[in-house]
Specification:
With 171 residues, this protein is mainly alpha-helical. Helices cover 78% and strands 0% of the residues. It contains six helices and no strands. The protein is elongated.
Length: 171
């Protein structure tokens, strides 16, 4: 029952920090990661124990962090590129974070390869985490922003509203 409270909290946090379409996109990306990682564990017949549960929770945190980095860049680019189309701005933001996302994933995967050699106790965690990092990287790049775009994200919501009576020429 606690998992649903956690997903609700994530939804509320992202909705307050960004916008509800981004919150739904984040939750869809996280569900994508969890379902595929659980499916992989089931197909490969890895016993579901506390180590695999820990890997899934780590994948959720990892993917959430990557998704928020992408969303921050999207919001930043909407303010920087005011005349471009929504698709262009979102694509540009994802491309600008692509090298950071891939380098972070590769660095994590190097550590996980070492953990794969760590013996029987670490093997289920390392396998689930390795697959989860790959899937989490995929969802951060391809699923999260696309879901927000498909839900109808537009620039009016993300651009700051001009306040009446404020002079832009003040130093």
């Amino acid at each position: 029952m606690q998992y649903f409270g956690t997903s609700r909290d994530i939804l509320i946090y992202v909705a307050i920090r960004f916008e509800w379409r981004f919150a739904v996109g984040t939750v869809l990306a996280l569900l994508h990661d969890v379902v595929l990682t659980l499916g992989f564990s089931s197909v490969t017949r890895i016993e579901f124990d506390l180590a695999v549960l820990a890997a899934i929770l780590a994948v959720i945190g990892y993917s959430l962090n990557d998704t928020i980095v992408v969303y921050d860049r999207i919001r930043e680019d909407f303010r920087r590129m005011r005349t471009e189309s929504v698709e262009f701005v979102m694509n540009n933001a994802v491309n600008r974070t692509l090298s950071r996302t891939i380098l972070t994933s590769v660095t994590t995967l190097i550590v996980l390869v070492v953990l794969l050699l760590g013996g029987a106790a670490l093997f289920p965690f390392a396998v689930a985490m390795t697959f989860g990092v790959i899937v989490g990287t995929h969802s951060s790049i391809f699923v999260a922003a696309a879901a927000a775009l498909m839900l109808g994200e537009d620039r009016k919501v993300l651009l700051p509203v001009k306040k009446e009576g404020v002079n832009d020429d003040t130093p």
